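Work Package 3 (structural annotation) set out to generate three-dimensional models for the target panel prioritized at the project kickoff. During this period the team completed the workflow that converts sequence records into discrete structure tokens, so that structures can be stored uniformly alongside our sequence database. As a representative example, we reproduce one entry of 408 residues exactly as it appears in the project archive.
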Amino acid sequence: MSSSIISAFAKCFALTVAVFLGAVVAPAATLTVDDDHVQCPSAAFTSIQAAVAAASPNDKINVCPGTYHEQVVINKPLTVQGIQVGNDALSLIQPGPMVPNTTSLTSGNPSAAIILVDGASKVSLNHLTVDGTGNNLPGCGPNFFGIYFRNASGTVDDMAVRNIQLAPSLFGCQTGLGIFVQSNSSGKSKVDILDSSIHDYQKGAIVANEANTEVNVSGNQISGIGPTAQIAQNGIQIGFGAKGTVTNNSVINHIYSPCTPSGCGASSINILIFQSDGTRVFNNSTGNAQVNIYYEGNRGEVTGNTIFQTLVFEGIDLIGDRNSAVGNNVKNSGASAVYVLGNKNDVVANILNEAPIGIYQDQPGSDNHLLANDFDNIGQKIVTAPALAAATLNQTSAPGRATSPATP
């Protein structure tokens, strides 16, 4: 047998084995979308959803500058990214009017998302602006989300999410989330939310709920609307069994104006960790809220944060067991700089400046470690209940006090 025949046979055999093993995969394609064919005249699609439908798993969709009046549903691994063309760099997704396109995994309530990632992994969203202006949703239902990862995983990077709110007459409705990540018992979600701008939402900027949900929230700029009597807004929420990390974010301006030292049925919180264990909150800058960092769970870490302008309550709340608050810089707190309720918590090496009380320890004898803290301009450095009545500083000795988490 000639060497050429042997070589051809070997190549054919190798190709057959590779196909059998799944090693030969068609190369990912790049699809281009342009709403008006001005910036990208040769684009094959004028609709993002049409490109998603035509794409194969792992393809890339380039969204040219323009305005896309559509809701987008993604159910396969894809990269969807805005691109720059010349001097234009705004790829805007702004549907109107909106309609329900899914349901909540927990309540089953109808939900309307501008971008819905449903049951897919490895979905990457980059350099897009998601805008809820003109949604025309008629009431408190359906739920309203800018981006919704529903039993889905991927990355949100360098995005802008804004105007995720209903009409002014409906602003008291407990909906309007910039980015929502949710799982149920039959699925999971793992999402990185990075370097994005989120503002002018109704209830919350970033919310991750339920067990099997994990998020890494890093480098985002988040701003609430400031004082409002209509709704208790929150900035970042990880709750109800979800877990993750919250790092290097700037979170400001969450203030429920009816919450005052004389009475507070609900409060607004910049970073709310609610019924979540093992979450890490570090190196964030947070200010101008009724509570800046609220941690309710066990084995959590609140480390190296800069915290300022806490109205009514505390700069940091630790509620649970074996949590730590280390190396934080907490300035100007309405009640105590740090509130502790639970067992074997560590409050160590923090700088606490300007508060009636530095550390308020609720329920004595809980083996907490309050060490090496720097107290500046503090009325009383450490107070342990019942040495001072809880009501004096709006303390209620009850986990979950005054919080208002999002529960779509």
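The chain is about 5% helix and 45% strand.
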